[in-house]
Amino acid sequence: MTSDLSTPAAPDGGTESGAVLDGNAAAGEFAGILANDPTTVTVRCGSCGATQAFGQLQAYLGGPGTVLRCRECEAMVARVARTPRGTWLDISGSSSWLFLPTPGPA
Amino acid sequence: MTDTNTTEGPADGSVEVTPSVGNHWRKATLIGLHSQSWHSRTLALCVPGWTGHLPGQHVDVRLTAADGYSAQRSYSLAEPATPDCVAVTVDLLPHGEVSPYLAEIMEIGDELDLRGPIGGWFVWEPGDPSIGDGPVLLIAGGSGVVPLVTMLRARKRAGDSTPTMLVYSLRGPRDLMYGPELEEMSADLSAPGSAEVRLIYTRKVPDGHPRPASHLAVEDIQPPSAWPEPLAARVYVCGSSGFVDHATGLLRKAGYPDDRIRTERFGPTGVDR
């Protein structure tokens, strides 16, 4: 792995003590990277295959990066970290991202 | 009195809304303050060039200390779109890092960094054809009422008559936000923009309140009998993670399909650098 993202947020890493939020709260971080509003994107988990709106993913915000986990199986589906070298986006835990055909209301 | 006194836009409410994903930080200046409850207040902020937003969207707020340390949190937008102006309602988290400054210390003229509007999923817009004309059920836990009240205000401003009910769970009378406005909104259910409001006190009830203090139960989310197809309602739930889990459990038990339920969770966690 070449990623700087060495610290997975909870549950397995256990490095993060705050409450679990959802993808709505992580949208600001991802909106800076994606051209679209992330919250309306349908994400398929690469581990269990469940699909869910980005806004419904579990979000862990207090760690060194922003980590999103599947609401069904808790596998990590996406993460973003801003480092001195640049911004890392890792979506290897997801199998697809479905963007709405017409831009959402935002 | 409501905080609309300090933050409302033009009297006719007509605003050209062209929301876009706002991913760059802007300077915002505090121009108005209004107390909401004993531990929350609404901040009206001037943001030059703000292009509007939808009810339910939020902004990220960033505070930066002199040594460069910064902390970032998300807050729901507390008013329908008004040119160059946004409002957020901030609830004090006793050991929080950002909310004590916003809820107690920040003064008129002070600045902060803000980006947004963010999120097109947890939104409800009067007349949105994708939503249809089915009823709207709004369920709030604590300060989760903020984006839902923004939806109610937008609905009232638009003269929308979609049957709407707000179920608002709160600890006690002194935690009530938007009290007078909600009372006025629910006083005459035949008036345009009115909505049924149920206050669910979980620890302490005000004198004369018919429902004893207890957590949100399935009968509390029972739709009004006048609703023709209650299970066709679009449901919005906003609160802490625990509250959202509890409320969605009740909704599933009541037969609401998952694809009609949209949720937004808030909590003490944020991004600190």
TrEMBL record, chain A:
<protein>
    <submittedName>
        <fullName>Uncharacterized protein</fullName>
    </submittedName>
</protein>
<dbReference type="InterPro" id="IPR045423">
    <property type="entry name" value="DUF6510"/>
</dbReference>
<feature type="region of interest" description="Disordered">
    <location>
        <begin position="1"/>
        <end position="21"/>
    </location>
</feature>
<dbReference type="Pfam" id="PF20120">
    <property type="entry name" value="DUF6510"/>
</dbReference>
From TrEMBL, chain B:
<dbReference type="InterPro" id="IPR050415">
    <property type="entry name" value="MRET"/>
</dbReference>
<dbReference type="GO" id="GO:0051537">
    <property type="term" value="F:2 iron, 2 sulfur cluster binding"/>
</dbReference>
<dbReference type="Pfam" id="PF00175">
    <property type="entry name" value="NAD_binding_1"/>
</dbReference>
<keyword id="KW-0408">Iron</keyword>
<dbReference type="InterPro" id="IPR017938">
    <property type="entry name" value="Riboflavin_synthase-like_b-brl"/>
</dbReference>
<feature type="domain" description="FAD-binding FR-type">
    <location>
        <begin position="23"/>
        <end position="124"/>
    </location>
</feature>
<dbReference type="InterPro" id="IPR008333">
    <property type="entry name" value="Cbr1-like_FAD-bd_dom"/>
</dbReference>
<keyword id="KW-0479">Metal-binding</keyword>
<dbReference type="InterPro" id="IPR039261">
    <property type="entry name" value="FNR_nucleotide-bd"/>
</dbReference>
<protein>
    <submittedName>
        <fullName>Oxidoreductase</fullName>
    </submittedName>
</protein>
<dbReference type="InterPro" id="IPR001709">
    <property type="entry name" value="Flavoprot_Pyr_Nucl_cyt_Rdtase"/>
</dbReference>
<keyword id="KW-0001">2Fe-2S</keyword>
<dbReference type="GO" id="GO:0016491">
    <property type="term" value="F:oxidoreductase activity"/>
</dbReference>
<dbReference type="InterPro" id="IPR017927">
    <property type="entry name" value="FAD-bd_FR_type"/>
</dbReference>
<dbReference type="Pfam" id="PF00970">
    <property type="entry name" value="FAD_binding_6"/>
</dbReference>
<keyword id="KW-0411">Iron-sulfur</keyword>
<dbReference type="InterPro" id="IPR001433">
    <property type="entry name" value="OxRdtase_FAD/NAD-bd"/>
</dbReference>
